[in-house]
Amino acid sequence: MSTIDKAAGGVANFADDSVGASKVVNGFARKIFPDHWSFMLGEITLYSFVILLLTGTFLTFFYEPSAAETTYYGQYIPLYGQHVSEAYESSLRISFDVRGGLLMRQIHHWAALVFVAATIVHMARVFFTGAFRKPREVNWVIGSILAILAVFEGFTGYSLPDDLLSGTGIRIAQAIILAVPVVGSYISFFLFGGEFPGTDFIPRFFTIHILLLPAIILALIAVHLMLVVVHKHTQYPGPGRTEDNVVGFQLFPVYMAKAGGFFFIVFGVIAALGALVQINAIWAYGAYDPSPVTAGSQPDWYMGWLDGAVRLMPGWFEFTLWGFTFSMNIFIPTTVVILLTMGIMVLYPWIEQAATGDRREHHLLDRPRNQPTRTGLGVMALTFYVLLWISGGNDIIAHMLNLSINDITRSLRVLVFALPALAFVVTKRICLGLQRKDREKALHGRETGRIVRLPHGEFIEVHAPLTDLERWTLVQHDNLRPMEIEDRVDAGNPDTLFGKVQRRLSRFYFEDRVEPVTPAELAASHHDHHGELEQAHADELDRADHPAIGTSQTTHG
User: Fold this and answer.
1) How many CB atoms lie within 10 A of CB 355?
2) From CA 175, how far away is CA 194, in angstroms rounded?
3) Residue 232 CB: number of other CB atoms within 10 A?
4) pLDDT tens-digit profile of 306-329?
5) Percent of the chain at pLDDT exceeding 70
6) In the chain, what percentage of residues exceed pLDDT 90?
7) What gap in Å lies between CA 406 and CA 342, rounded to an integer?
8) Under 8 Å between Cβ of 522 and 439
9) pTM, whole model, 2 decimals?
10) 264 vs 17, 43, 373, 463, CA distance in Å?
């Protein structure tokens, strides 16, 4: 045995004797994780956060979190000799004077965008497949908090270079804070250390960005992963998969090898973006000056929807009462929209639980088509977000397409209410149509496009039988019906307000539905299908033996 092996064995024995590490490691290494590409979305979130920590640590060695004035004497000639803040000067120095500094800045920025995007897409996957149901409600709440923290973490980091674009964003954020009734001005003075812009906001944003928010995010990710292990991983329906087991690979060595390789793929893609695609060229914007107005400035995509909401809100919704100015035209589309969005996200598992009355544990995921109301609500929310995001660039759209910005704004004010409702109805109809198609396929098999004429003149299409796995996938979902309060022991009291709301909510979710195939229908269809195939096969044999008797027509679709 080599010296290294002896040293490693000694460390392992010490850890086992001290904290019982072998039991923990052995149990954790044998944890089973299912294999599906959509589960990688959460891993992209984790890996991009790791990349943010690594690149952010590098940047902190050279960044100066100070708004004090200095003179720039770096390599970028157009700004040589300009009076700028130390934060902006250090950002330029990182970009042009530090070896690899610009690459690190751009990798950091791209990783931040990927982190927020992966978080939101991962949340969407969890929502549409029902992975938030019992016992994972707490994990859903943690994910919702992580999503909003990721947005604020991105905004604080985006504001640190103190360039003209980020300064415009900070000014908008200060306006949002000021719009909070009664206490807004006090919060603004506390955050900025006096009148805007002040000199305190950069070191405070820096502390929030590198210490406070990352610590909270890291702690929540740790709790999130711990709950994944405790509750076991969800999985898609399939052979041998039940609510009581997990079919997949052990964490070690198979899953660890795959996850490690995927980490380097994510790192490589983000590094390639940082090396080849320029982003946040702060030298082109110049240092922040509160006096000019930056025309055409656009925030990062994850903040653009709030900017769009402000642009759509009529400006007349502002009044003075009891000596205070209430700027509802700013407060409602920002603070109220954020609070409502977060409230609905956090409470949704319990909202759906009230509609179904289902308090069972669920470890098998739903097909989105089998939950048409939930899927419709998700698409409605995404449509609402996209419309607000588009309205955040209404000035750019008007300029590029030579249209009236007023006409664009008025149209979006109508669409932001009408289009999400239309998206809900259309999505729900599509899901119900897909369910009917699945029902037809489960009963009669897959269409082949082959038309056969029987001896008595009838034309039939020969359907190919499904495999047991294909048929099981189409019929395995629960039969969800509107809750009948009198018949459900887990329903609320029908005489209370909650009971009445629960019954109406249940009707909203499940009144429009397609009944899944029953075992009796499946057995009858299976018998009829075999008779049909035998008749068609006998007819083909008869024509082969007597080619002059009868005719047949075959088409291929």
Assistant:
1) 23
2) 14
3) 16
4) 889 999 998 888 888 877 778 888
5) 86
6) 45
7) 31
8) no
9) 0.85
10) 35, 12, 39, 46
